[in-house]
Amino acid sequence: MSSNSLFVILAIIVLPSVVLATDYVVGDEVGWTIGFDYKTWTAGKQFYVGDTLLFKYPVGVHNVFKVNGTSFKDCVKPPQSEALTSGNDLITLATPGRKWYICGFGKHCQIGGQKLFITVYDTWAPIPLPIPFSAPAPAPAWYN
Q1: How many domains, the chain?
Q2: Residue 40 is part of a domain; what is its CATH number?
Q3: What is the pLDDT of residue 7?
Q4: What tens digit of pLDDT does each residue of 16-66 get?
Q5: ∠ at Cα 40 (34, 41), nearest 5°?
Q6: Contacting residues for 102 by C-beta, under 8 A, at least 6 apart
Q7: What pLDDT does residue 133 have?
Q8: Rounded (5°) CA angle 65-99-44
Q9: Minimal CA–CA distance to 57: which of 103, 119, 100?
């Protein structure tokens, strides 16, 4: 196999996952805050393995917890030691599936709606190969 062919094969397999990764600032210019509709923010977006989420907020005012579906629904925060607190918390979406995030400050999740749910899709879906065209085989004699 020539080096050019190898390069093309690698580009087809590896490049889409690298090029297609998207960096999201959660809430766009509003950031991670209370009183923002994150469900509307996610509408029309598709998140893939390799994408990143950046939670931007003033330090000491909010935080970010990754939780399960039940904790998301009930706004139950994990131990404080699991909080992200930098104000610029970058999360790389490493696995496909459902992901839930909440703010653990006061009642920000319960009353302020500071919670985010997304579904992450796998970028390594098989790429369909083109099927070469060939004329259909003639019908067997007994078929007529």
Answers
A1: 1
A2: 2.60.40.420
A3: 47
A4: 545 579 999 999 999 999 999 999 999 999 999 999 999 999 999 999 999
A5: 75
A6: 64, 65, 67, 71, 72, 75, 77, 109, 114, 115, 116
A7: 58
A8: 120
A9: 103
Which residue type sits at 1?
M
* Residue 9 counted as domain residue: no
Instruction: Name the helix (H) or strand (E) containing 89.
Output: strand 88-92
For 102, phi and psi rounded to 5 degrees? -140, 160
The β-bridge relationship of strands 97-102 and 115-121 is antiparallel
Task: Give me the domain span that covers residue 108.
Answer: 17-125
Q: What is the DSSP letter of 59?
A: B
Amino acid at site 84: L
pTM recorded for the entire structure: 0.74
| Residues linked to residue 67 through DSSP beta bridges, in sequence order | 100
Is 39 inside a domain boundary? yes
Place of tokens 């009642």: 107
139 belongs to a structural domain: no
Instruction: Evaluate whether residue 4 is within a structural domain.
Output: no
